[in-house]
Amino acid sequence: MPAPIRLRELIRTIRTARTQAEEREMIQKECAAIRSSFREEDNTYRCRNVAKLLYMHMLGYPAHFGQLECLKLIASQKFTDKRIGYLGAMLLLDERQDVHLLMTNCIKNDLNHSTQYVQGLALCTLGCMGSSEMCRDLAGEVEKLLKTSNSYLRKKAALCAVHVIRKVPELMEMFLPATKNLLSEKNHGVLHTSVVLLTEMCERSPDMLSHFRKLVPQLVRILKNLIMSGYSPEHDVSGISDPFLQVRILRLLRILGKGDDDSSEAMNDILAQVATNTETSKNVGNAILYETVLTIMDIKSESGLRVLAINILGRFLLNNDKNIRYVALTSLLKTVQTDHNAVQRHRSTIVDCLKDLDVSIKRRAMELSFALVNGNNIRGMMKELLYFLDSCDPDFKADCASGIFLAAENYVRDDSVPNLIQLITNSVEMHAYTVQRLYKALLDDISQQPLVQVASWCIGEYGDLLVSGQCEEEEPIQVSEDEVLDVLEGLLVSNLSTPVTRGYSLTAIMKLSTRFSSLNRIKKVVSIYGSSIDVELQQRAVEYNALFKKYDHMRPALLERMPIMEKTATNGPSEIVQTNGETDSTILDTKHLPNITQPASQANDLLDLLGGNDVVPIIQTTVPTKPASAGGELLDLLGDLSLTGQPAPPFLLDGLTSQPLFNDIAAVIPPMTAYNKNGLIIEFTFERSNPNPNIAVITIHATNSTEADMTEFVFQAAVPKTFQLQLLSPSSNVVPAFNQGSVTQVIRVLNPQKQQLRMRIKLTYTHKGSPVQDLAEVNNFPPQSWQ
C-alpha cells in the first residue's frame, strides 16, 4: 500500500472543500483508507492514522473505530506513539465504555516509568477519564508521585488526586499526609495544584475543613509574598504576580474562613491589603478584587472591611466593561440583605444602570433597585422605576410593574385611598378635571388597584360632570353615559379587580342612577350581582335592589353628592373619612357624639348611612325604639325587624358602625409543617393580605429540638415564574436548642393567577461547628392559601 498522507496535508485538503458535501466525500475517502491500514496491522503509520482520525473527530465525524488502535499505541515503547495513544484515549474513550478498563495495566506501568514525560502522560489520562475502578486500582501510584521531589510530576499528581477524590471520596485520607507538605513548595505550579487539591478536600469533607483551618496563616504568608514581591517575568501577568494562584488562594481562604471566627480574623489584614494594593486598570486586577470581595462577604469579616468590599463593587459599576458591571450588580444583589446601608450609598449609580443598553444589566439593576426600596427612599425610587417602566422593553414591564406593586403593598399606608378621596372631595373647583383625568387613567390601565378604587369613587360622585364636559383645566372629552357604565362594568368582571375594587365599582354604578338617565341598565347590573358568589358584593347589591323597589322615593336623597369632609381634631388618630358610603375605623372623642336615641331629625340620621356631613357612631348594637313622630317610615328601610331592642343584622349595621361594608373576612387557614429533619422543624402559618387577596402572607417558625444551637441560620425560598416572592428579614439567625425559642420570618407571595402554590426552600446553618445545607420541595400547601 502507498504511504498515507500526512496530517498536515489532510488538513490542507479538507480546507479546500467548497461545500459540506465535498468535505464529507473527502472524509469518507480518508476514513476508508485508514480502516484498510488498521486491518493490515500497519504499525509504521498507525500513529499518523490515529492523529488524522482525531482531527476528523474534532470536526464532528465518527471516529469510534479507532479506539482499539489507541490502546495499541499506548502499549508501544515509543514516546510519540504513547503521546498520540493517550490523547486518543482521552478524546474517544470514557468510563461508560468497558474497553477503557483494558488500559489500566498500561497506565500503571507508565506511572512507574523511568521517564517523567511518560509518567506525565499517564497522570493526565487518569486525571481526565479515569473511572472509579481505575482510580481505586491506581490511587497508590498517584500518592507515591505526590511525594516525589520532581515538581513536574507533583503538580500533575495533585491534579490527578483531585479526580480520584471526586470519583472515590473515601480515598481522601490517603492523600492527607502528602498534601500537608505541598504548600511549602516554591514552584508556583505545584502551589497552584496543591491549593486546588486542598479546596476539593475541604468542600467534600467537614472533617478535612476543620483539619486544614490551621493552614490559614501559611496561606496568608504565601498570598502576602505574591502581592509584595517584585517583578517576576515568569509569573507576571499585566503587572500582577501570578494572578491565577492569588485567585485560587482567595477561594480557599473563603472556604476556610466561612463560619469560623479565628480563621476569619487571621485573614482580615491580608484581604484589606489585597483590596487596597491591587491595580484596577487591567482586567487581571479586577478578577482578583472580585474574588477578594466574595471572600470578604462570605467570612466573618470586620464591618469596615465589608464596606470596603461593597465600595469596590460600586467602582465596578462605573467600569466600561459590561461584564464587570453585570458581576458587580449580581454581587450587590446577594449582599443587599446583610449590608443594606452600605449598598444604599451606591443607589444613584445602580439606578443609572437602568439606562444601560445591555438587557442583562438592566434586569439586574431593576432587581437590585427594588431590593433597595425602603420607607425613606420610596418616593425617589418609585419616580425612577416608573420612568423605567414607561420606557423599558415589553419583556421588563410585567416584572417591573409587579415589583412596584409589591413595594407599594409594603411601604404605602393603608389609608392612602380614603385620604386621597378626602383631598379630592375638598377641592371642589377641581372635581371636573379630576374625574376626567382618572377616567382616562382607567382607559389606559386598571392594574393599579388603589388608583382604580379612587377613580371609581370619583366617577360615581362626579360622573355627571364627566359626561357634560365641564372641565376647564384641559380640553373636555366627549364621553357618553353608556361608555362610562361600560368602564365600570368592566371593572366588575375583570380578573385584575380585587373584591374591594368591585365594591367601589358597584357603588359607583348605583350612585350614577341619580346622575344618569340609563336607569334600566343600572337596575339590571345591580340585580345581577344580587346572586354573586362574593358575599360582600351580593350583600351590597341586595341592599341597593331594596332601594330601587321599596324605597325608590328616598334614593335621590340617599345617593346625593358627598359634602366636604372634615377631619375631627382629637388627641388620637381619629380622622373620619367617608368613602363610597363607607366609614373607616376610627377613634372618636365621645364628648362630641350625638345621642342615637334622639327622635329629632331621624331622616338625617338615616341619610348618614350612605353619606352625610357627620358620622353617627353606634354606642349600642340595638335598634332604637320607633318614635311616634314623623320619619318613622324611613326606619322601615330596616325591613321587618322587631323594634324592641333586638340586635339588627350585621349587614345593616355596617352602614352605621365604624366598620367598612367591604371588610375582608380572613379565612382560617391551617398551618403546615414544611420541613422536619435533623431536629430542625420549619412550620408555615398563613394569612391573606387584606388590601389584595392575591397576596398570601406566610410566616415561617423555625424550632430546634437538638441539644446545640443552630447558628448562622439562613432560610431561602424560590417559586415558579408565575409567582412573585418577597422574603423579609428574619427575627434572628440563631435557632435556640431544646425548642427554647424560634426564628420567625415573613414571606409574601403574589399569586395573581390563583395557581397551586409550589416552593423550593434552601436551609443553611451551622450545627456543632459543622456547616449544614439542605434543599426541600414544599408542594402540599393548603388550598385556602392560594385559591
Automatic annotation (TrEMBL):
Keywords: Cytoplasmic vesicle, Golgi apparatus, Membrane, Protein transport, Transport
Top-rank taxon, per record: Eukaryota
Broad class of the protein's primary localization: membrane
Record Gene3D superfamilies: 2.60.40.1230, Leucine-rich Repeat Variant
GO biological process, one term: intracellular protein transport
Protein family: Belongs to the adaptor complexes large subunit family.
PANTHER family in the cross-refs: ADAPTIN, ALPHA/GAMMA/EPSILON (PTHR22780)
Listed name of the protein: AP-1 complex subunit gamma
Source organism (scientific name): Cyprinus carpio
Lineage: Eukaryota, Metazoa, Chordata, Craniata, Vertebrata
